[in-house]
Amino acid sequence: MAKRTLGLGKAAKAKKQKIAETVESEIPEKSESPQLENELTIQLNEEVDPNDDFAQLKALYKTFTTSAKDSELVINGVIHECDRILRNAEPKDVIPDYFYIIYGLSLNELAKFHTENKEKLDEYFKAALERIEDGLAKYENNIGLLLAKSRILLNELTLVRVSPLTLESKAKEDEEKLSKLLDDALQVYEQAEDKAEESAEYELFDEDNLDLLTALDDLLDIVDNFGKDTLEGLDEDQEEDDIEDEVDLPFDHPLVSIRDDDRYNQWWRDHTHTFLENVDKHLKKNSDKKDELAHLRREICRRLGQSYLQEAELPSLVFTSLSYDDDYKDEEELHGLTSEEAQGAAQELIAQALKYLTQAEDKEEPETWVDIAEAMISLGNLYDVDSEEQESLYADAEAILNKANNVTNGKYKDVLDNLLQ
């Protein structure tokens, strides 16, 4: 797979009404977790039994996960409730698996509010993993707990080990390679996938657990674009393609072990495909969930479509350069590809992109229509000028863009004008 030029997993989640709880605060230990200095009152937005602590905890956590995840007060409220439930539990009480999942993931989310404080980051992630291990001790190979553990390990890698790095950073002999830590997180995720397949439990492949694939995508984006924001003194006339080239890293830089191994990009795509398959298996068993899972399914398809478009960028560039650029008129190959090879590879990749972007179309979101139109234009550019295939793709794209402009007061006029030039 080609290197990715931007993260695919940064779609914002819809904001929903926040819930109610009163909370206090402190520093996390093994048995007690952070609380709040301020008080927060919020309104529960679903019916729960006021005498069922676990049901209330679930509702509180669900409100956080379906919001913009930007309220430290709410996540502290969740952690406070987990602490309280654990303190009040009797030895005979059965604590459900999801309690440990919520506890661990909440500490994981809290860490994201303290990225400038390494001591707190270490403390929160350590506590988060302890809660998950407590759960796994009681619920061995539990799918939800394994998914949660993989997410925590990946976020710890990103925030504790990757975020502080600079271009001058060097790998230390006494530290585990970043690629090893990444492998550990992904292997735990694979265990969860395998267990889900064995037991036909697909309902946990939901919007919340898509978080690992989102976080991995963002990490690979950071790695591939590492150091670009530190470049200074670029010539204003420098070609955009030159500016987009990745920054060279010395052989002993900690990120080299990830950047030089393209299997992580392929892993992301393969397991995004698997995630989509699991969503579809869940839908097959529960057809009444179709509307509920429609947004999730479209989002996964959008990401897959964009990933194929990104991979098509290099062969598309090779084809257009060798076919139409006088600077390459005497060249037979570019990046190891002939014009014909590049054309075929790019056409196949963009056709795949269109397959998924079409499934990602939302009748209420013109932007998703335009994604399809732009992919059609890119595919049309790979056919001979004025050929039947090119004219058909351009005509379909024009119709889509006209429709999108009609409902958005010309928002995509520039895209349409470029096509019609």
Provide a descriptive summary of the structure in words.
- There is one protein chain.
- With about 425 residues, the protein is an all-alpha fold.
- The protein folds into two domains: about 1-165 and about 175-225 and about 245-285, no CATH class; about 295-420, Serine Threonine Protein Phosphatase 5, Tetratricopeptide repeat (Alpha Horseshoe).
- It has 15 helices and no strands.
- It has helices spanning about 55-65, 70-90, 95-110, 120-140, 145-160, 180-200, 210-225, 240-245, 255-260, 265-285, 290-325, 340-360, 365-380, 390-410, 415-420.
- The two termini are about 35 Å apart.
- Residues about 5-30, about 35-40 and about 230-245 have low confidence and may be disordered.
